Amino acid sequence: MKVEAKILLSLGTFFGVMCAVYWNWSLENAGGVMMFAGMLLCFLPGSYYYWWSRRMKVRPEDDPNSTQSEGAGVVGSFPSTSIFPFMLGMGAFFVVLALVFGIWFLVPGLFLAVWAFLGATAEGRRGGHV
Amino acid sequence: MADLLNPAAELADDGHGHGHHEEHHGPTGILKWMTTTDHKIIGLSYTVTSVAMLVIGGLFAEIIRAQLATPDGHLVSLAQYNELFTMHGSVMIYLFAGPFAFGGLANIIVPIQIGAPDMAFPRLNALSYWLYLTGAITMLLGFFTSGGAANFGWVAYAPLSNSLNTPGAGADLWIGGLLLTGFSAIFTGVNLTATIFYLRAPGMTMFRMPIFTWNMLVTAILILLAFPVLTAGLIMLYCDRHFGTHIFSTAGGGVPVLWQHIFWFWGHPEVYILALPFFGMATEIIAVFSKKPVFGYKSMVFATLSIGALSLGVWAHHMFTTGVVLLPFFSIMSLLIAVPTGIKIFNWIGTMWRGELWFSTAMLMSLGFLFTFLIGGLTGVYLASPPLDFFTHDTYFVVAHFHSIVMALVLAGMGGLYFWGPKITGYMLNERLGKAQFWLLFIGTQVFTFPQYILGLDGMPRRVPLYIHNPEWKMLNEWSTIGAVMVGISTIIFVVNVGYSWKRYPAGDNPWDAQTLEWFTTSPPPHHNFYRLPQIRSERPTWDYNHPEHKSLAHGAGAGAEHQPTPLAAAVTVLEHGQDEGPNEGANE
Ligand code: HEM
Ligand SMILES: [Cu+2]
Questions:
Q1: Is the distance from CB of B498 to CB of B460 less than 8 angstroms?
Q2: How far is CA B316 from CA A25, A52, B124, B258, B334, in A?
Q3: Residue B73 CA, distance from chain mean position
Q4: Which residue among A32, B176, B317, B523 is buried most deeply as judged by most CB within 10 Å?
């Protein structure tokens, strides 16, 4: 976890320095704001990982000498099939078509999207099905 | 030959297809395709769709080149020409190159390379694919509307892209399509980052990850930094077009150049989002076919990270001629990128140095990539110098520069398909057809770009359908068209090869005597990827396992005398009826 944190924090620091130089030199705001946001986007997860990395045991994947059996245990929950991504994708498709061809496309679009949201959440609660 | 070296092959014989596969019951046929959350199937769908986009975009390119073969071509109308070059660029950049790399090969290979059972968020991964597919359809739907497809160039500069200059559904479909594919890319970025941070196998420390995985991590971070900017920009553009805002129009106090800032703040990182995955593919391929570890592993990682870092600070080198950007800053930053890029090229050569070279199709493609990318990179350095850019901006010189680059990526991507295809499908591609494809693609690329460099220096502007007043440009344009036709034929050979080799040459687990974890499992890998894993003591676990006498102990030396693989079933429990645990929750506590 330490390396992960370090990568993001150093990227963020670099963007911060670059932003300071650029903004002060060019006085151009669009780029300055975007670089500043880029810095924040690195600091946010980076500091979270850093905070955790100091509080948790070294994970087997961070330990150069760990054996495969140390990975025993739960990796995660992986529903092996689900229709909801497809449904949500189609919902988004119709919503976008509504931007072009007329507002009525929102009806099937939102219907599918909301159904998929609810369905996927319920499925997540159940832990998915095989 | 390689099979003998690989004990995993024996295990595959009794395990494969009988016990393990039957454990997993699920829908079949089209329903399987629609409901799958398996990263390998999603990745394959991505690969097939994006290669189809390569063919479609290539078709547009051939029409463009046919039009330009004569100074007064009348194959297409002027309006159709605008649609064609716009959709060529858009299809290639948004729908082929990126999705092919980070949705296709990376999706399949990254989890296997780090010993993960799937991507971190399998359902989100499926959603990414559906957004990509529907986004592609949305964008291409423009051709079926009365006004035709989008025609403001793939960069959609304001004020050309406002509702007065480009009314019509085609432009809105272009925006809508990009909204969908943009979210798809962002979700893939999230997924790759989480997978690489949380789902590595025990012993797979960050500095033991294969270079391809490293490059995909940096790509994913760049996606997260860049794509939201584009999406925001597109929403602003849509508001300008339909809701009467004036963000990009001077009429209402807006700033047209703001669009260029937003677009290129995404656009330049995007060129590295496109390039880094292919750098990674070439790195793996060159190492395997030189039978050596990657030369300068850590400097390679560092170079990738610095390319990623610098790429956020160079966007306005696309805007030098606007006259409102800070020339020295962007020029210096752009030239700096050449340094890590040079380190990479040095390391690729170092990897081959005194290696046992095997010139398979994949290796040839990677060498072709190296050469072509070098040309594109060097001309990029020219363009990064404002005085030279003032002279060449918006000429065919720029077109040639980025085609050297992107054709290099096509070469590397084809190499990736020849290299990893056997892992994904279980069958090899025909090498003889592969080599024919390589030579046509490689020579065709040079024949197609070199005349464009000269034309550009001679002043031929880009995006023109006619050059009646400069008939002397005809010969060079003809050569460029011949090159484009060669590239087109090479693509046909590829499609023929896939058809011809279909289920013809079984691959075995490790046909190339390769080094990284994906070659330890079966081809294709089982559901959740591994029956067992070797101990991971370097960045080449499969190699160490197969060649205990030449172990590489580059990172974290001194451990791992035992070489017994651990049955995965005992080591890792993958919950299918799982609780709500996040990845590695156990380890966090
Ligand atoms: C050493 C590295 C590179 C440098 C210094 C560089 C520099 C430049 C510059 C200054 C331009 C603007 C030219 C103009 O419009 O007048 C440009 C255009 C372009 N470059 Fe590069 N480049 C580099 C690498 C790359 C890579 C790796 C890619 C793609 C993966 C790429 C893709 C493009 C594209 C697509 C354009 C054209 C954009 C348009 O449509 O206007 N470049 N490059
Ligand atoms: Cu650029």
A1: no
A2: 14, 37, 34, 11, 10
A3: 34
A4: B176
Residue B342 makes CB contacts below 8 A (sequence gap 6+) with none
Average pLDDT along chain B: 88
DSSP code of B573?
Answer: E
pLDDT one-digit tens code per residue, B230-257 = 999 999 999 999 999 999 999 888 999 9
Q: Does B528 lie at the interface with A, CB-CB under 8 angstroms? A: yes
d(CA B77, CA B79): 5
Which pLDDT score, from 0 to 100, does residue A78 have?
66
Which chain B residue is nearest to residue A128, measuring alpha carbons?
B577
Q: Give chain A's radius of gyration (CA, Å).
A: 22
Q: Are strands B532-533 and B566-567 parallel, antiparallel or unpaired?
A: antiparallel
Domain boundary assignment for chain A: 2-62, 84-124
How far is Cα A76 from Cα A53, in angstroms, rounded to an integer?
Answer: 20
Task: Give B165-182 as a 3 state SS string.
Answer: CCCCHHHHHHHHHHHHHH
**DSSP designation for B92:** I
Q: What does the alpha-carbon distance between residue B257 and residue B212 come to, in Å, rounded to a whole number?
A: 36
How many Cβ atoms from other residues are within 10 Å of residue B178's Cβ?
Answer: 26
Nearest Cα neighbor of B516 from B211, B100, B205 is B211
Give helix B256-288 / helix B211-242 axis angle, nearest 10°: 160
Match 């959603």 to its residue by tokens.
B127
Answer yes or no: are the C-beta atoms of B4 and B510 closer than 8 Å. no
B225–A64 CB contact, under 8 Å = no
Percent pLDDT > 70 in chain B is 89
Kindly list the protein residues whose Cβ atom lies closer than 6 A to any atom of ligand 1: B 155, 271, 274-275, 317-318, 334, 337-338, 341, 377, 380-381, 383-384, 389, 393, 398, 401-402, 405-406
- Kindly calculate the radius of gyration of chain B based on its CA atoms and give it in whole angstroms: 24
Query: Cα–chain-centroid distance for residue B266?
Result: 16
Looking at the complex, report in whole angstroms how far the Cα of residue B334 sits from the nearest Cα belonging to chain A. 13
Which residues of chain B neighbour A90 with C-beta distances below 8 Å? 130, 134
- Number of H helices and E strands in chain B, helices first, is 22, 3
pLDDT digits (tens, 9 = 90+) for B284-327: 999 999 999 999 999 999 999 999 999 999 999 999 999 999 99
A 70-129 residues with CB < 8 A to B: 70-86, 88-90, 92-93, 96-97, 99-101, 120, 124-125, 127-129
State the DSSP H helix or E strand holding residue A110, giving kind and residue range, or none if neither.
helix A106-126
Question: Which tens digit of pLDDT belongs to each residue from A5-55?
Answer: 999 999 999 999 999 999 999 999 999 999 999 999 999 999 999 999 999
List, in sequence order, every beta strand (DSSP E) within B186-254.
none
Residue B571 clears pLDDT 60, i.e. is over it: no
Determine how many CB atoms are found less than 10 A away from the CB of residue B232.
Answer: 14
The tokens for B395 are: 């000429």
Q: What residues of chain A lie within 8 A of the CB of B135, using their CB?
A: 96
The DSSP element (H or E) to which B574 belongs, if any, is strand B573-575
Residue B462: the pLDDT is 95
Residue B541 preceded by cis peptide, ω within 30: no
Question: What pTM was computed for the model?
Answer: 0.90
- pLDDT band at residue A127, thresholds of 50, 70 and 90? low
SS3 content of chain A, % helix, strand, coil (to 5): 75, 5, 20
Identity of residue B193 = T
Cβ-Cβ contacts under 8 Å for B424 (sequence gap 6 or more): B40, B43, B44, B47, B108, B523, B524
- Residue A39 DSSP label: H
Q: What is the number of other CB atoms lying within 10 angstroms of the CB of residue A128? A: 21
Contacts of B427 (CB under 8 A, 6+ apart): B421, B501, B502, B503, B504, B505, B506, B507
